């Protein structure tokens, strides 16, 4: 199966428009969204943008009912009452109610979780390591993979709201291999990168996040991944206004339109 990966949203509803176009073009059979739907630089007062972005996510879920959704730290920070960078007290009720509405729009409750597996690919926000699995329960190191994922997905915030959890982990900054890397590839978001890349069994995809001045950090692309062969290809994505975004270096990183 080919799965389209929708990386961190952060109040950019147009990302769902581009994902829809890619699916209509037949470049993937279903989508997996790595979420982080709310919060962005200086948007704390823009409650309408929070509402509109969640509404677009919900309409996407209804249009593509097989889509899987992976909670991000910014999503669960609201129902868990955990302060987070960009957290909006003004949009708190909106986020909590819209998250419930998103869950209610899904065919199965299991379609929204911290980790999903399709064949030989694991999808999550941050990344899963053997060290974390051992911390959760040492017996899980030799358990069936679905048993491992069930343990993670049913874990409390005590085990998930920390830097080593699949919600927060940042393998981009460490030389650590993905859990069962020889069998499963992990597709992750969470950490902004300049280009999509694979390292140590992790494929990093968060290329739509921005600097504080609104400039896009990464290339403008998503991936379509063959979940059996674990091979992926980049799919170019048009920007918010219908143009491609290219990144050029002029002294410091600067985003311009092509």
From TrEMBL:
Q: Which Pfam families match?
A: Metallophos (PF00149)
InterPro entries, alphabetized = Calcineurin-like_PHP, Metallo-depent_PP-like
Please list the residue ranges annotated as the Calcineurin-like phosphoesterase domain: 1-194
Taxonomy, superkingdom: Bacteria
Instruction: List GO molecular-function terms, semicolon-separated.
Output: hydrolase activity
Name assigned to this protein: Calcineurin-like phosphoesterase
Give the source species. Butyrivibrio fibrisolvens
């Amino acid at each position: 199966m080919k799965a389209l990966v929708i990386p961190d949203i952060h109040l950019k509803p147009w990302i769902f428009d581009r994902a829809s176009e890619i699916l209509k073009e037949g470049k993937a059979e279903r989508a997996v969204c790595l979420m982080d739907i709310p919060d962005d630089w200086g948007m704390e007062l823009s409650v309408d943008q929070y509402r509109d972005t969640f509404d677009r996510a919900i309409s996407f879920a209804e249009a593509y009912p097989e889509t899987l959704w992976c909670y991000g730290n910014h999503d669960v920070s609201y129902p868990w009452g955990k302060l987070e960078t960009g957290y909006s007290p003004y949009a708190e009720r909106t986020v909590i109610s819209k998250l419930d509405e998103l869950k209610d729009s899904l065919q199965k409750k299991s379609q929204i979780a911290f980790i999903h597996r399709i064949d030989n690919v694991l999808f999550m926000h941050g990344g899963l390591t053997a060290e974390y699995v051992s911390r959760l329960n040492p017996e899980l190191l030799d358990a069936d993979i679905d048993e491992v994922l069930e343990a993670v997905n049913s874990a409390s915030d005590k085990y998930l709201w920390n830097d080593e959890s699949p919600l927060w982990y940042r393998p981009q900054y460490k030389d650590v291999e993905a859990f069962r890397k020889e069998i499963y590839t992990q597709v992750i978001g969470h950490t902004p990168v300049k280009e999509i890349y694979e390292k140590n069994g992790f494929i990093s995809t968060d290329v739509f996040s921005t600097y504080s001045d609104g400039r896009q950090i990464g290339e403008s692309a998503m991936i379509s991944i063959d979940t059996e062969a674990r091979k992926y290809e980049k799919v170019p994505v048009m920007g918010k206004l219908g143009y491609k975004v290219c990144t050029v270096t002029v002294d410091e990183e600067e985003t311009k339109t092509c």
